Amino acid sequence: MIRATAFKTLCAGFLEEGIRPLARNNAAHGVWTHPEGDWDLFGFSLEKLLHRCPMLGEIEHGDLICGMEAYTPDKAPTVGHSSQARGYYVLNGLNGQGLSLAGGLGDLVANWICDGIPEIDVANLDVGRFLELHANSQYLMERAPEIAAMTYSNMYHSHQFHTARNLRMSPIYHHLRDAGAVFGEIMGYERPLWFVQFPGPDRNALFQGQDALVGKPVWFDRLGSNPMIILSLK
């Protein structure tokens, strides 16, 4: 793994900025085509790889192979029985980790088909967890590059994405924001997670990233000091 910043993890030779135009250029024409390798784009990765493993520089001939991969909006595979066709099971969207996940997920689905129920809780992988919103092409073009760039990053329960946000908001969203709400996305909706005491007019009200594994979460002290907030909707 080669990480440039918190949101720029190298994935298969591309930073998030490199993945984004690749998706848009193909999708704009309504046809997905196999992209050609770009040595200039891959140059950043190659330089780092040669630094980490100098013997790669002794290879007489090498080909740059560029392919396409399937990613889901939440970086979790889609697994389970489809509600649209009886007896049809889905195992897809392995987010660039098919070789490592195929064995375990294949065994899970095989037993599921034979026994009629999964042997473990698979709610977070359920193929029915997505809405029509998640199939929107603009949404996917915003979110997919971020997911691809996180292939080798650990994502924890508190994680909030920084792309494709503010798509579904309640009628009182702006009142909550003015009151200091910090929002997290749940099923496409922006919902308040906690409130800051002195909200600035130009602040970013969206929580992005995730809590640290060591120490208090970022909201811990703020949540304890949050007063009861009453909104006037006049």
From TrEMBL:
Gene3D superfamilies: D-Amino Acid Oxidase, subunit A, domain 2, FAD/NAD(P)-binding domain, Probable tRNA modification gtpase trme, domain 1. Residues 115-170 form the FAD dependent oxidoreductase central domain. InterPro entries: FAD-dep_OxRdtase (IPR006076), FAD/NAD-bd_sf (IPR036188), FAO_M (IPR032503), TrmE/GcvT-like (IPR027266). Signal peptide: none annotated. It comes from the Eukaryota. GO terms for cellular component: mitochondrial matrix. It holds the Pfam family FAO_M. Residues 30-112 form the FAD dependent oxidoreductase domain. This is FAD dependent oxidoreductase domain-containing protein. The lineage of its organism: Eukaryota, Metazoa, Ecdysozoa, Nematoda, Chromadorea.
